[in-house]
Amino acid sequence: MSEEETGSASEETRYFSKDFEWEELREEIEKDLSHRHHLLPFESSSSPFSSSSSSSANQSEAWKSFHNRHSTGRFFKERRYLLKEFPELLSCHDYSKVLEVGSGNGSTVLPILRGKQSIVVYACDCSKEALERAKEMIDAADGILFKDRFHPFVCDFSLTGFPYWLVCDSCRRDSMQKQHDFSSDGNKSKEMELNQLSSKRDQCCTGVLDFVTLIFTLSSLPFQKMPTALEECISVLKPGGLLLFRDYGLYDMTMLRFPLEQRVGFREYMRSDGTLSCFFCLDTVRDLFVGAGFIVHELEYCCIKSVNRRNEKQMRRVWVHGKFQKPL
Predict the structure, then answer these.
(1) Which ranges form a coiled coil (predicted)?
(2) CB count in 10 Å sphere of residue 14
(3) How confident is the model over 100-124, as pLDDT tens digits?
């Protein structure tokens, strides 16, 4: 989450095309002896960090400090590419509900609210300060009133899960029951019955969600916490709902910059400010999401070349793009 995509508005149409092949990058990196420390099996004894240094609680505090230092919000740019990469957010039904996990200062939320005039966005982050900046940014946005469609709340889903007012236990159980009934025998009358029961219940929560977005968020968690975090995400989606994913890919430029002493796990690194970053291969992402119960719809590397304007140095960025569905 701490290193954002950069590029001018004029570059948007070509910015997320395939600028190079990931397999060619892999071959180059794996032949380069200067990158050997990224490829070796990880030995915990070789890391100066204690095993507790990358715990969820410590990571939560590190990210809070990070957002305090970058409280102006200038560190993050609005993710204007989002609706091109995830057009489902435009074609969804009116009043669809989206949960943005790890929203930071709102750089993902704002294009969603702009793109669909009726969509409702719930956004959580461990940092109260980041959410306050997000609210200020969205309140100041021109042309459209977002106030009634944007609902930020403080939550570290890797520690506590999502609050019951968002999706209560009863709604989660109903969603899982509908999923089971429909997949087992296609009994639509049973599904209608459960819908009627849900509508009669006193409204205690927002109900199950149409979308969850995880944009440069999963990589900030300790790897051992990722399966539980994804199980939490699938539990708040309605059957057929989508999780939209983008995060750091294996051999991204930022991974190759880390020295050996900042390696704290297999493809996991700790920045000098204490925040964690993991770099994913496609197989790891697939295993994590399938293990949580998702169906893989799209999963690929995005390989982008950009140029540092200060030194004219070419940068090769690698991200993982994915769309995952809760089974019908």
Answers:
(1) none
(2) 10
(3) 999 888 889 989 998 998 999 999 9
Q: What is the dihedral of CA 237, 112, 141, 152, to 10 degrees?
A: 10
Q: Which domains, ranges and CATH numbers included, belong to the chain? A: 15-167+205-325 (3.40.50.150)
High-pLDDT (> 90) share of the chain, % = 54
CB distance 100 to 215 below 8 Å? yes
C-alpha 151/C-alpha 272 separation (Å) is: 32
Q: 280: which DSSP letter?
A: B
Cα 184 → chain centroid: 31
Question: What is the model's pLDDT at position 52?
Answer: 46
Alpha helices in 140-168 (DSSP H): 157-160
Token pair belonging to 40: 């070796």
**242 CB-near residues (< 8 Å, 6+ apart):** 88, 210, 211, 212, 297, 323, 324, 325, 326
Residue 68 in 3-state DSSP? helix
DSSP labels, 154-180: E--HHHH---TTTS-HHHHHHHHHHHH
Query: pLDDT value at position 323?
Result: 98
Within 10 angstroms of residue 216's Cβ, the number of other Cβ atoms is 23
Q: Is the pTM of this model over 0.85?
A: no
pLDDT at 58: 73
- The amino acid sitting at 163 is P
Instruction: Give backbone dihedrals phi and psi of 320, rounded to 5 degrees, phi first.
Output: -105, 130
Across 33-42, 153-162, 282-291, the highest mean pLDDT is recorded for 282-291
